[in-house]
Design a protein that fits this description.
By secondary structure, the chain is an alpha/beta fold. The protein is built from 9 helices and 14 strands. The chain has 3 domains: 2-63, OB fold (Dihydrolipoamide Acetyltransferase, E2P) (Beta Barrel); 72-210, P-loop containing nucleotide triphosphate hydrolases (Rossmann fold, 3-Layer(aba) Sandwich); 228-294, Probable gtpase engc, domain 3 (Ribonucleotide Reductase Protein R1, domain 1). The structure holds guanosine-5'-triphosphate, magnesium ion (MG) and zinc ion.
């Protein structure tokens, strides 16, 4: 049958398809070909005859995209959870994460949580002005939750954001039936253990959500954003100026005749977004070939 991997633990995969559910073991074949099945993958799986409900993955269907952290494929939406109350998320990180979403062709949705203790209207409006949906919400008071629920009701949404911003709390508040499972995930992973292969897609509305343990640093290599040539395009408001610089290989950092820098000077691009671009560009510039090989 064709189905989708809704749970991946590193040792086995749970595949759900029209004919039901199969628990499949990870086979060496995929590792050798450099393609390891991930949660979110669409696969061809068949019963393996050992026991009822046990199966084997025969083939991976083509992927739309994949994230490295968390390891998940065919992501439709990235829910970037930020907090303007401690632990305060820097807007640089929000900018990095919107760029990450664009890089992988994923629609970003930003949620500023904890509005019960830190107002986020103005900051949310800044991102809406860029064309990104941005919700001010509180897992505690319920503000913004109906808006979030509606946005998450189809496709596969992956939550991301630093540890402690309230990702799991938001999911718990959104749906009581999510609560046990998200609780289980955070208890198992705890803080700091970010490399876990365990990813579970939880049904939500007509779609799925995947909670992930937060992280404390942003590593562009680990996030698989290694082609710095693509970075300018990942800042949406830069797009209309691309191709208008004096030099074709303009880095939009300090080159003469740069259309982006001109737009910045004219007030069409915000200084903080451009600064985030420069910082991310500088990090990608340092990525050496051996680091790419390491992946
Ligand atoms: N005041 C307030 N506190 C919140 C809100 N949402 C979450 N918290 C608190 O913030 C802390 C962290 O919440 P979590 O939901 O565990 O955060 P997380 O993003 O899932 O963190 P990791 O799983 O470590 O990545 C908890 O003590 C929550 O009670 C909110 O809207 N308002
Ligand atoms: Mg959590
Ligand atoms: Zn330029």
């Amino acid at each position: 049958m064709q189905g989708r991997i809704v749970k991946a633990t590193g040792s086995h995969f749970v595949v759900i398809g029209p004919e039901g559910e199969l628990t499949c073991r990870a086979r060496g074949k995929f590792r050798l070909e450099g393609e390891f099945p991930l949660a979110g993958d669409f696969v061809e799986a068949v019963p393996d005859g050992t026991a009822e409900g046990m199966g084997v993955i025969k083939a991976l269907l083509p992927r739309k995209n994949r994230l490295v952290r968390p390891p998940v494929a065919n992501v439709d939406r990235l829910l970037i959870v930020a907090s303007l109350a401690p632990p305060v998320t820097t807007l640089t990180l929000v900018d990095y994460l919107t760029a990450l979403a664009e890089y992988h062709d994923i629609v970003p949705l930003i949620c500023f949580n904890k509005t019960d203790i830190a107002d986020a209207k103005e900051t949310a409006a800044r991102y809406r002005a860029l064309g990104y949906p941005a919700v001010a919400a509180s897992a505690k008071t319920g503000e913004g939750l109906s808006e979030l629920a509606e946005a998450l009701s189809d496709g596969l949404t992956v939550l991301t954001g630093e540890s402690g911003v309230g990702k799991s709390s938001l999911l718990n508040a959104l749906s009581p039936n999510l609560s046990a499972r998200t609780g289980e995930i955070s208890a198992k992973n705890g803080r700091g253990r970010q490399t876990t292969r365990h990813v579970e897609l939880i049904p939500f509305g007509n779609g799925y959500v995947a909670d992930t343990p937060g992280y404390s640093s942003f590593d562009a290599v680990e996030m698989d954003m290694t082609e710095k040539e693509r970075l300018p395009w990942c800042f949406v408001e830069f797009r209309e100026y691309l191709g208008r610089c004096k030099y074709n290989d303009c880095s939009h950092v300090s080159d003469e005749g740069c259309a982006i820098l001109q737009a910045l000077q004219d007030g069409h691009i915000s200084p903080s977004r451009h600064e985030s671009y420069v910082r991310l560009y500088d990090r990608l510039k340092e990525v050496r070939k051996w680091e790419l090989k390491k992946k």
